[in-house]
Amino acid sequence: MTNRDHEASVELFKKTCAQKGLKITPQRIAVYEELLEAKDHPSADVLYTRVRKTFTNISFDTVYRTLLSLVELGLIRLVKSYDGRKRFEPNIQNHHHCICIKCQKIIDFCDEGYDLIQVPKTLGRQFQVMNKRVVLEGICSDCRSK
Fold this sequence. Notes:
Number of strands: 5
Strand content: 5-15%
CATH topology of the largest domain: Arc Repressor Mutant, subunit A
Strand order of the largest sheet: 4-3-5
Distance between the termini: 30 Å
Shape: globular
Radius of gyration: 17 Å
CATH class of the largest domain: Mainly Alpha
């Protein structure tokens, strides 16, 4: 992420929080900025460890509640992983995931063909689809080389 993209994302964060009445605190900004810099779809506990380097008195509960609030506001996305932990990402643009079934690494990718997958009409009558994301499972190159 470029410095300009980072700054624009933080400004969007501040604007959205203000519009929704969520107080903009240094801790919330630190959690969001740490997630913006993450390349690994971190869990709340991983982000907590990273943010504690700057905010030594921040609690896990503050980090976790901040992440859930940001998901609710649409500023970040929740990524379900196969290890049972909720993981988070700042990329709210349409994209898909490859998940390693050995190490749980999540890799983002874009593909227009997957974007165009149609929801079956029978499902559409039973369920209102809000988002489409394709998840491919496999073994990453790091795990294959071990």
